[in-house]
Amino acid sequence: MDPEASRTARESLDLAFQMSNILDTGLDRHTLSVLIALCDLGVNPESLAALVKELRNEKPSLSSATAPSSSSFSFDVILFLLRYF
């Protein structure tokens, strides 16, 4: 990726992350970047949103000290997609 394209991609992710924070989605930058990449690959955004909600509801109630990391959540999303799509 050339430097200009890299800068544009980083700025786009920054903007999407700011919007995500304003909307209080609870998505971290890494998870958001994975979800955007999946949309770029043609995965339906509404299906991804439903999947994120479903995975959050399936997680057992954990204290903040033992909450799964964002990379763990992203990995769950990817595994689900590989299994069902």
What does this 3D model show about the protein?
With 85 residues, the protein is an all-alpha fold. The protein has one domain. Helices cover 72% and strands 0% of the residues. It is built from 4 helices and no strands. It has helices at 3-22, 29-40, 45-58, 70-84. Helix 2 runs parallel beside helix 4 (70-84) and helix 3 crosses helix 4. The protein is globular and about 40 Å long. The relative contact order is 0.11. The model is unreliable at 62-66 (pLDDT under 50). Keywords: Cytoplasm, Cytoskeleton. Belongs to the MOZART1 family.
Provide keyphrases for this structure.
single chain; 85 residues; mainly alpha; 4 helices; globular
Question: How would you briefly describe this protein structure?
Answer:
Helices cover 72% and strands 0% of the residues.
List the helices and strands and how they pair.
Layout: H1 3-22, H2 29-40, H3 45-58, H4 70-84
Number of spatially distinct domains: 1
Q: Uncertain regions: pLDDT < 50 for 5+ in a row?
A: 62-66
- Report how far the terminal alpha carbons are from each other: 28 Å
How big is the Rg? Answer: 14 Å
Assembly state of the chains shown: single chain
The share of residues in extended strands comes to: under 5%
What structural category arises from helix and sheet content?
A: mainly alpha
Total beta strands? 0
Mean pLDDT: 81
- Helix tally? 4
The dominant shape is globular
Helix content: over 70%
- The SSE string, one letter per element, is HHHH
The major pleated sheet works out as: none
Subcellular location: Cytoplasm, Cytoskeleton, Microtubule organizing center
GO cellular component, one term: gamma-tubulin ring complex
Organism: Arachis hypogaea
Family: Belongs to the MOZART1 family.
